[in-house]
Amino acid sequence: WRSVACGRVFDANVNRNTKVKNWFHEPVHGRYIRFYPLTWQGHPSMRAGVLVCERPCVGGKLDFKFGMSFMSSSLGPALEASWGEGEYLEKQVGDKTRMVYNFRPGEGLQIDQGRCLKASPAWTILIDVALTDTKGYRRLLGSQNWGDYGLYVNKYLMLIPKNSKMMCKEVIRPGKYYRYVMSRSATGDVKLYINGELCASGKPPYKNNFQLDPHNVMFLRDDSGENSGGDLVNIRLWNKELSASDVEAVCQCTRPDKGETCKNFVVYNAPYSKMHVSTYWQQHVKADWKKWYNQGRIGSPSAWCAGKNRIGEYIQLDSGKVQTISGVVTQGRRDRGQQWVTSYTVQVSSDGADWRQVGCGREFDANSDRNTKVRKYFNTPVKARYVRIYPHSWYWGPGLRA
């Protein structure tokens, strides 16, 4: 062990949270570092890190995974918590437990990406985050030269100003993880994606078609207080426009085959012989209860009522052959109880074995009463035979007709 600067005593902190940086007069080569407190307030307690040389980024991209660090796995500049730092927590993300960066409203992040991603007219940014508040304007992405304009959530994902006319139709739900992607082509064409699905595109005539200032990119921070807290999983930046198929791959979305565009629509009401459910209420108690709790056709006197109030239950419809399917229609439970599904996801299959999510897992709004038929059209028609509807939220219990 050797003393830095011949045993120099460095001034340190005067409070609990301010980060104090001390640079050595001459950089040193080493691997291990020891700190020896000499004076303190209360008790010798500290949090510490090391200033190392920034290495050039690899592959024209930055990838921040928040594994207890603001550094990129592809090297290059680090993120800065210029407005206060959150904390790292283990949380359930999908079917895995992983580390996330938990931040409070206003504790955004920023980066000077110019040392890695030069001033390229084309770029793509991904933000994987769950916001605690999605009502009212909540900023996701900004740049010094954009001013108050940028990418926001206000129930829906959108570009501000509204005259940009770029807003996605999917409702953004608080506490749910979404992969938001914004890209810009070299000619100024802008695209928005949610979980890999293209949901808005255009050429907004603002801020040079939303060209980034490479030396000041801000995440989850708005100077006017239009912020939300949340849990951040990943931020990625590329110095090029990713194709739609590349975005799908990055977001781990496998889309169904694309169907034809229809001029007119009819409702196919599958017979019970063509319907299958994961479970239905009291199915192991009385066989004749099937007539009350497994009647999931549109217009039936009852409904399909899942065996348990849990996500993962489904009702399956067989359309008879592989064909274009443009959407689904649902009702609540007609008889006895006040029961209906308020949101669901959809999966489709051509063979009953290979299932793919519609809209990259989009959660569709559904019913608000027992009898109104609510139609939901897919952004892109799909080609399939079988359709599964998975309730995600409900009133009283997951019961529906479809």
TrEMBL record:
SMART domains: FA58C. Residues 1-53, 253-402 form the F5/8 type C domain. CDD domains: FA58C (cd00057). This is F5/8 type C domain-containing protein. It comes from Hemiselmis andersenii (Cryptophyte alga).
